[in-house]
């Protein structure tokens, strides 16, 4: 019998399940969960997944444990790294080259726009975040993206992000296309409380499944906008023993996900 | 024969005036030009306008030491150790002017600077960035049905500070790992100052000339600074010093503790005294080896 999965492990498994074989993926820095999801998917249904850590330009770094994507040690384990100026053009401007990006954020809003810049006014913020880097281009131009948050409260799930640095469905409906962005946008938002997607027409965020032991009231209380609920959403299918065993033996041998995201 | 470009770290930064636009090379915890940054702080620089490549302690320490009036922010982060402490505090106090730029704006801006163009066109990605940095982004005319475009302003640093692994006395600079944005930043900057972990002969440079990312004509000054990127990594030579980075974040909790940090590691120390303060066994443990591969 495997021990219960930690939050980080659960999120990595849920993301890994949504990845198809042969897809091309980009993740950012400080991305333990995202990195684990990619390397786990390669062990499961997607052995030909091709993933790149944008900033370092490194392709398919593989170890049996997690390393900060900002570390040179990760570059050392990659199949290739690209010169950044070339890499930037490649990741920024090739529309739909990437099947998806996995991002985290300070805030996500009702239409899946994200913010990694500031909470509050940019000129005197309440929280100053790390900045935008390639998020504008990845959200705008990848086929789809995922938002992975390790907290779910009213300061993170907001009606409108304080600083839009990655375009989701903009103002909802067809506003993203009207802005001139190619089709795409956020597919899933994952949090400790559940998994969320977007209503096809209105593009408003809705509850897709609920984490075990969590109630709809809890989700509503922790979300600062009216989240769409259709019927009674199912309980999220938690990681199986096999998924957890693969994750712990081949992807995260040092247990970083358990330690950092209990 | 070219005159040697090798100067001391203090000589290298002596000519950087207060108020200069200073670009910083490297990438997050790699190749931050720390020996040069510490020299700028010792010199008492004021009112600098920073243009950092995605960075960590180099911009943050300059901001914390009171050297900075404004900074461009593409990405300034301490990653697994949290948010950049001084960048964060001074932004939140409203005492630091921050120009938020995305990757397209810094890459496009540097390219415009390199090509002597006033701006580069980039597709409008629908963000709030132009609203908060209108000096850097403005709309370009487009016909109905065409993709919406923005201009991103040319970025032209007065001087850039870079760190690489080796160079010869003429200023042929070699990167033994990823050069990140360094070559682009150097081309866009009026003056180029590079610290290197070691000086090698021109014969050594010639034998592996594919590693020369900055040819001598592009480089104004070279500083020999062993472990000059510490506490960040110098790819292929030494790894980042995580304990020191953590200690820096902890020391940044209050003005008193940060002042003590600066006294210990920056203000009273020449570059060699800095290495003595860090300690030989500590530095030796960072040297790249299969036994300390993380």
Automatic annotation (TrEMBL), chain A:
Fetch the Pfam families from UniProt: CoA_trans (PF01144)
GO MF entries: CoA-transferase activity
User: What keywords are annotated for this sequence in UniProt?
Assistant: Transferase
Q: Which domain of life is it from?
A: Bacteria
Q: Which PANTHER family match?
A: ACETATE COA-TRANSFERASE YDIF, CHOLESTEROL RING-CLEAVING HYDROLASE IPDB SUBUNIT
Q: What is this protein's record name? A: Putative 3-oxoadipate CoA-transferase subunit B
TrEMBL record, chain B:
Q: Which domain of life is it from?
A: Bacteria
Pfam families recorded: CoA_trans
Cite the InterPro entries for this sequence.
CoA_trans_fam_I, NagB/RpiA_transferase-like
Question: Among its keywords, does the record have Transferase?
Answer: yes
Single GO term (MF): CoA-transferase activity
Listed A to Z, the keywords are: Transferase
Quote the protein name from its UniProt record.
Putative coenzyme A transferase, subunit A
Its taxonomic path starts at:
Bacteria, Pseudomonadati, Pseudomonadota, Alphaproteobacteria, Hyphomicrobiales
């Amino acid at each position: 019998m495997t021990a219960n999965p930690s939050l980080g492990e659960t999120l990595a498994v849920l993301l890994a399940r949504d990845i198809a074989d042969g897809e091309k993926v980009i993740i950012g820095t400080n991305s333990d969960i995202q990195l684990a999801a990619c390397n786990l998917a390669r062990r499961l249904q997607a052995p030909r997944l091709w993933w790149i850590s944008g900033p370092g330009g490194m392709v398919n770094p593989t170890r049996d444990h997690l390393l900060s994507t900002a570390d040179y040690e990760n570059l050392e384990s990659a199949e290739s790294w690209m010169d950044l100026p070339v890499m930037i053009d490649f990741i920024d401007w090739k529309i739909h080259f990437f099947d998806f990006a996995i991002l985290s954020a300070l805030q996500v809003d009702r239409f899946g726009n994200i913010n990694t810049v500031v909470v509050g006014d940019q000129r005197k913020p309440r929280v100053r975040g790390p900045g935008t880097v390639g998020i504008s281009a990845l959200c705008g131009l990848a086929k789809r993206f995922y938002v992975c948050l390790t907290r779910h409260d009213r300061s993170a799930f907001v009606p409108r992000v304080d600083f839009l640095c990655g375009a989701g469905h903009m103002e909802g409906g067809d506003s993203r296309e009207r802005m001139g962005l190619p089709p795409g946008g956020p597919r899933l938002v994952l949090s400790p409380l559940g998994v969320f997607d977007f209503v096809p027409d209105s593009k408003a965020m809705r509850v897709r499944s609920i984490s075990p032991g969590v109630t709809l009231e809890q989700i509503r209380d922790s979300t600062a906008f009216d989240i769409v609920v259709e019927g009674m959403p199912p309980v999220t299918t938690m990681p199986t023993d096999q998924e957890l065993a693969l994750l712990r033996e081949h992807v995260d041998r040092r247990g970083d996900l358990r330690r950092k995201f209990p | 024969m070219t005159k040697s470009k090798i100067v001391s770290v203090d000589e290298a930064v002596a000519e950087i005036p207060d108020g200069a636009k200073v670009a910083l090379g490297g990438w997050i915890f790699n190749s931050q030009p720390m020996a040069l940054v510490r020299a700028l702080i010792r010199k008492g620089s004021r009112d600098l306008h920073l243009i950092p490549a995605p960075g960590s302690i180099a911009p943050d320490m300059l901001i914390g030491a009171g050297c900075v009036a404004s900074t461009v922010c593409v990405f300034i982060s301490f990653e697994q150790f949290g948010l950049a402490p001084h960048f964060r505090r001074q932004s939140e106090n409203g005492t630091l002017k921050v120009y938020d730029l995305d990757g397209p704006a810094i890459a496009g801006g540097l390219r415009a600077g390199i090509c002597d163009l006033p701006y580069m066109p980039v597709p409008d990605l629908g963000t709030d960035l132009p609203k908060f940095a209108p000096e850097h982004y403005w709309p370009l005319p487009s016909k109905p049905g065409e993709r919406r475009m923005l201009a991103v302003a040319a970025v032209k640093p007065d001087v850039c500070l870079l760190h690489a692994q080796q160079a010869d006395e003429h200023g042929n600079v070699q990167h033994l790992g990823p050069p990140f944005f360094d070559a682009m930043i150097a081309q866009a900057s009026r003056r180029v100052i590079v610290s290197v972990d070691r000086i090698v002969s021109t014969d050594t440079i010639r034998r592996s000339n594919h590693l020369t990312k900055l040819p001598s004509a592009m480089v104004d000054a070279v500083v020999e600074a062993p472990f000059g990127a510490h506490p960040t990594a110098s790819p292929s030579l030494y790894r980042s010093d995580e304990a020191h980075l953590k200690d820096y974040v902890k020391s940044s909790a209050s003005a008193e503790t940060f002042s003590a940090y600066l006294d210990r590691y920056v203000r009273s120390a020449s570059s060699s005294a800095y290495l003595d303060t860090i300690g030989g066994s500590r530095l030796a443990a960072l040297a790249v080896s299969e036994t300390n591969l993380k």
